[in-house]
Amino acid sequence: MDINSMVSKIVDAERIPKQQRIDFERAKIDTSISAYGRLRESLDTMKNLMANFRQEKAFALRSVNSTEENIVTATATTDAIAGKYAVDVLQLAQSHKIASDVIPDDTRFGPGKLQISLGDEQFDLSLRKNSRLTDVVRAINGASDNPGVRASIIKDRNGPRLIVASDQSGAEKALTIGVQAETGNDLYRLEYKTIEQRVRDLEQAQEEALSLLGMPSEPENEVNPQQEVAEAQEVQQPADEGEGKKDTAQEATSGRLKIPFLAGPKRHPAP
């Protein structure tokens, strides 16, 4: 008789039904947990959707239809008033153009450097001595880092002029031309600055002039005339004469006492 086999069969007979019940309960619990997780996920999604419905704007969405989608497009916020609107074109965007003064044919430029800016983009040109106006045009048009500036020469009845134009429209693509050369160089005839730049240059020149003369741009210490009068009265009053004090004070307040008003350290006339 195989004792080990009999013991194994008896143990299995006792274990298998219990193991099956345990596995069944575990599967049931896992299914419940999974279902609860899916339910919670669905509730969270619904909660997020309902949060948008609480806002009034969710029911006031606006859309825009244009009769010329290739010309005019628009978007509307929830605050827009429903209706039909017409778009009037008051001004077309144009590219910036600069025309110089009349430059005689025998004018020679250089040596020096031109700094041409197109909005936020800038490129520099170095010109040799005795360069002609045509050399300036070739240098501008042939620059490898040119962001979109074109130069040409136009001759009117007064003479030739340099025309510099941008190939991009809009106020943010304005042109400026700066010059780095010796004083008196004809390159400065091509310089062009905006009004804001000219104002900054004037302010800087004024500050430098005041600094050179040793004058502060703003007074550091302001003198109070009433305080000067009061201190002058104390200096002018005799130490031992009561009536003299009264007369001197009256003269100071009536304006008959001459007191110099000086900026900086206070000075008083000798008694």
TrEMBL record:
One Pfam family of this chain: Flagellin_IN
GO biological process, one term: bacterial-type flagellum-dependent cell motility
Compartment(s) of residence: Bacterial flagellum
Family note: Belongs to the FliD family.
Stretches with biased composition (Low complexity): 225-239
InterPro entries documented for this protein: Flagellin_hook_IN_motif (IPR010810), FliD (IPR040026), FliD_N (IPR003481)
Region of interest (Disordered), ranges: 214-271
Record-annotated Flagellar hook-associated protein 2 N-terminal domain positions: 1-96
UniProt keywords, alphabetically: Bacterial flagellum, Cell projection, Cilium, Coiled coil, Flagellum
Main location: other
Domain of life: Bacteria
Keyword Glycoprotein recorded: no
Summary of subunit composition and partner proteins: Homopentamer.
Entry GO terms, CC: bacterial-type flagellum filament cap; bacterial-type flagellum hook
The name this protein goes by in its record: Filament cap protein
Membrane spanning stretches: none
Coiled-coil intervals, chain numbering: 185-212
